[in-house]
Specification:
It contains 14 helices and 16 strands. The protein is of the alpha/beta class. The longest helix is centred in the first third of the chain and has 23 residues. The structure holds iron/sulfur cluster (SF4). Iron/sulfur cluster (SF4) binds next to loops.
């Protein structure tokens, strides 16, 4: 089954920690032009050989996809249904920022086919949100989650970032508790702040104008989250992701399970049958190419088989269920135990990997050092 990702690269302004391909807010004209191009992009991809592929997830990410009108979103959903074999119940997710949302708008999004809403909360700490350039505070988060429920959304995800400046373990855990108690989201993503990327926040930290919390504080906050969410009945199913039973993210599972996805919109990656490519990360270039009837890919990588296997193993190990290493190797035409047996044994001795019911998985103690484990497979 194919998943489809649609990238909408517009935001009111750039947040300090963000390195996604996104542009400061565009005119209404640019937004509708992009929406029309997304439909055309789907048509071109279908014509290029994907027509009638089975599709069971569609994900609008960004950027801030809720900056498109519900009618424009609906036209993209409709085109996927028309051009591909749509498998119900398909999961159709839209990312949105809390400050954008009103009940009527959310109802229109539901009518357009969105059945899962992902809110970019990041933190409830008002001072931190302001410092990062976010446009919402805690009241907007509660209002948006409440509006989503009122509009009928019964699959709600909240995105959070752990490790932002100003983090205090006990405050973080209290705020997470507030979100869980008040909104009972079906899904939560808690990402660790990534400081390896060139972002304005990195510049602030390097210049001494912003200070990151200590590693101990971050680990404490993450461990506190694990305990709280476990008690509240969430499954910790992927390093950064938690779901109430039955609500794992089907779309994101495709990335972790090495399944195919098509990316449309500027900068969106695709991965199908061992090939990986990307639409150009340039709005004007993307729109012009699509207008001319050309798919604007700028990076086609026939991924090296060893690299593909390594990536599939690493992505699979992100899942708390772990992976069947033998099956993973078979899917890539390799004997994965022959390739990684030595590495696995070493990591088991270090207490970072374990085998549970025939599956290889990270131990709980390895969660904070997962990046070091990945490095062993590359
Ligand atoms: S709203 Fe999201 S995509 Fe847009 S700048 Fe902020 S973090 Fe980046």
């Amino acid at each position: 089954m194919l998943g489809i990702y649609a990238h909408v690269p517009f935001c009111v302004r750039r947040c300090a920690y963000c390195d996604f391909f996104t542009l400061p807010d565009a005119s209404d004209g640019a937004r509708s032009r992009l929406a029309r191009s997304l439909v055309r992009d789907l048509e071109l991809a279908a014509r290029a050989g994907l027509q009638f592929r089975e599709v069971d997830t569609l994900y609008f990410g960004g950027g801030t996809p809720s900056r498109l009108d519900p009618g424009e979103i609906g036209a993209v959903v409709e085109s996927v249904r028309r051009l591909f074999e749509w498998r119900d119940p398909a999961e159709v997710t839209l990312e949105a920022n809390p400050e954008d949302l009103r009940v009527a708008h959310l109802e229109a999004l539901r009518a357009a086919g969105i059945n899962r809403l992902s809110l970019g909360v990041q933190t409830l700490d008002g001072a931190t949100l302001r410092a990062l350039g976010r446009l919402h505070g805690e009241p907007e988060v509660h209002a948006a989650a409440h509006a989503a429920r009122e509009a009928g959304f019964d699959n709600l995800n909240l995105d959070l970032i752990c490790g932002l400046p100003g983090l205090e373990r006990s405050k973080w855990v209290d705020q997470l508790g507030t979100l869980v108690d008040r909104h009972r989201p079906e899904h939560l993503s808690i990402y660790m702040l990534d400081m390896d990327k060139q972002t304005p926040l990195l510049g602030e930290v390097e210049a001494g104008r912003a200070q990151l919390p200590s590693e101990q504080e971050v680990l404490g906050a993450f461990e506190g989250s694990l305990k709280l969410l476990d008690t509240a009945g969430y499954e910790h199913y992927e390093i950064s992701n938690f779901a109430r039973p039955g609500y794992r993210s089907h779309h994101n599972l495709k990335y972790w399970l090495d399944e195919p996805f098509l990316g449309i919109g500027p900068s969106a990656w695709s991965y199908i049958e061992g090939r990986r490519w990307r639409r150009v990360a340039d709005l004007e270039g993307y729109l012009k190419a699509i207008d001319a009837g050309r798919i604007p890919d700028d990076s086609i990588e026939p991924v090296d088989p060893d690299r593909r296997l390594a990536e599939a193993v690493i992505m699979g190990l992100r899942l708390r269920d772990g992976i069947d290493l033998e099956a993973c190797g078979r899917a890539h035409g390799r004997d994965a135990w022959a390739v990684y047996g030595e590495t696995v044994r070493r990591l088991e001795e270090q207490g970072w990997l374990e085998q549970v019911r025939g599956r290889l998985r990270l131990t709980d103690t390895a969660l904070p050092v997962a990046n070091s484990v990945w490095a062993e497979f590359l």
